[in-house]
Design a protein that fits this description.
Elements lengths: L3 E5 L3 H11 L4 E5 L23 E4 L5 H11 L3 H8 L1 E2 L4 E4 L1 H14 L3 E4 L6 H7 L1 E4 L7 H11 L5 E2 L6 E3 L9 E2 L2 H5 L6 H10 L7 E6 L1 H12 L8 H4 L9 H5 L27 E7 L6 E4 L8 H8 L10 E3 L7 E2 L2 H4 L12 E3 L9 H16 L14 H10 L26 H23 L3
Parallel strand pairs: 1-2, 1-7, 2-6, 7-16
Antiparallel strand pairs: 3-5, 4-5, 8-15, 9-13, 9-14, 10-11, 11-12, 12-13
Helix pairs in contact: 1-14, 2-14, 2-16
Length: 460
């Protein structure tokens, strides 16, 4: 245990980490470059500034983010407590008065006798690491100088720039009366086999191991979908994002506006497929690619998008087979600098190659306010016990533990993730079809597991 721990970044994760460390009567040097220097998205001098929505999402235990908040309440999260104190009416969601929230966090952090806030940009990371433990929680808009130092320390050629990502869907919500497994290369093999040989081979195949799910569309279905797509509402980007967002990727709604058939010659091309219902080539095919080892999550191939979340739900649900789709994560487009945590971090957010360096917040690849807070809490607790005497590896049966496991599990196609039930292990016993009941069972198991951890670790 060290006398002083350095935390870089005064956002949600950095403030939570600082509070958790200070609770153990360890001094914290919290570096925040505001107000001397601002990122392109920040404008408020306070700590824990919220720059996008003021919503911390649902409070319901049948929502993974709601369950995560309840876990954090049990773990004495400072920021969730203040969010509860500064909430504004928002139905079943937890939304906050953003100015009151940031002001209260700032007050709590600055009055803590163990926390020293230093308003400077960090340019000497290597020197700090020689002196002790460091937690980097600088978020998706990490300064250029610090980002370069992080690149050097992690051995990565570059940090990831999360320009665009497609929606992710829970497999159990897909209609397999329409959808079918297989990729176009496997389908092409049908030409080399008799119909009976092909059917026998498909029947023997273990579907859980197949990495693609296909959603065929006829001409009428495709053209209706295309019209909805080109007329949909999009998110307004920040000025600093507009000049870099379209390099290397193309939002599907922009691609669609280039012509009615553009998608059919791009991500929705039907080449190599036969629709099992008609035994004929469909007019277009939407492909979903496996996104996790358990084959419970699938992303929409080529569907990187800047559509508003509500529009994504409305329009993508019109694709045959996705009428009841559960969107674990919507497509997004924004600048988001993050490290390749799946190769670099342990489940306690510790860098594998430098034991006294931790990361927290969106720079790790967790997506969302509450998720950032949870990573700060885990990194802070583990920084206190960095010498191996005690490690806080939260169970994967909890959302806080499953999220940490997800971002630290090797994945060649790693991308940021928010809290969702798809990253939790399957429920033991028989499968529960009713979604609400199933999610309540997840919540019950999670909270019981967390209570056991609280007793084991004596977390206070």
């Amino acid at each position: 245990m060290k006398d002083t721990i350095t935390v870089i970044g005064g956002g949600l994760a950095g403030c939570e980490a600082s509070y958790q460390i200070a609770k153990h009567k360890i001094n914290v040097k919290l570096y925040e470059m505001k107000p001397k220097k601002y990122s392109p998205a920040h404008a408020n001098e306070d700590l824990a500034e919220i720059v996008c929505s003021n919503s911390f999402k649902s409070n319901l235990l049948t929502n993974a983010c709601g369950l995560l908040k309840e876990e954090l309440r049990k773990l004495d999260s400072l920021l969730i407590r203040i969010a509860d104190e500064t909430k504004v009416p928002a139905g079943q969601a937890l939304a906050v008065d953003r100015e009151a929230f940031a002001r209260r966090v700032t007050e709590e952090i600055k009055k803590n006798p163990y926390i020293e806030v230093i308003n400077e940009e960090v340019t000497n990371l290597k020197e700090m690491l020689q002196e002790g433990i460091v937690i980097i929680a600088t978020g998706p808009l990490t300064s250029e100088k610090l980002a370069k130092q992080i690149q050097e320390l992690t051995g990565q050629d570059k940090l990831y720039f999360y320009d665009a990502a497609a929606p992710i869907i829970e497999k159990d919500s897909i209609n397999f009366d329409i959808a079918f497994y297989g990729d176009r290369y496997q389908q092409e093999k049908k030409k080399e086999e008799s119909e009976n040989q092909w059917k026998q081979r498909l029947e023997k195949q273990d579907r859980s191991e197949q990495s693609y799910i296909n959603l065929p569309m006829n001409q009428d279905e495709y053209e209706k979908f295309w019209r909805e797509l080109v007329e949909a509402e999009v998110v307004t980007l920040h000025d600093f994002e507009k000049r870099e967002i379209f390099e290397g990727c193309m939002p599907i709604e922009i691609m669609a506006k280039r012509g009615m058939d553009t998608l059919r010659f791009g991500p929705l091309k039907p080449v190599g497929f036969d629709d099992p219902r008609t035994a004929k080539r469909p007019y277009a095919v939407v492909q979903l690619r496996q996104d996790d080892k358990q084959a419970r999550l699938y992303n929409m191939v080529g569907f990187q998008t800047n559509l508003k979340y509500g529009e994504q739900k409305r329009i993508f649900s019109k694709i045959p087979g996705l009428e009841q789709a559960e969107f674990i994560k919507y497509g997004v487009m924004h600048r988001n600098t993050y490290i390749n945590s799946s190769k670099l971090l342990n489940p306690n957010y510790q860098l594998k190659t430098i034991p006294n360096l931790y990361f927290a917040g969106q720079i790790t690849g967790v997506e969302g306010y509450v998720e950032s807070i949870s990573s700060g809490l885990v990194a802070g607790l583990n920084a206190v016990f960095w010498d191996g005497v005690k490690k806080h590896h939260f169970s994967e049966y909890t959302v806080i533990g499953a999220l940490a496991k997800y971002i630290s599990t090797p994945n060649d196609k790693f991308q940021p993730m928010n809290a969702n039930f798809g990253i939790l292990p399957e429920l033991e016993g028989k499968k529960i079809k009713d979604k609400k009941e199933r999610y309540l069972h997840f919540a019950k198991r999670s909270l019981e597991t967390l209570e056991q951890s609280l007793r084991e670790y004596r977390i206070k």
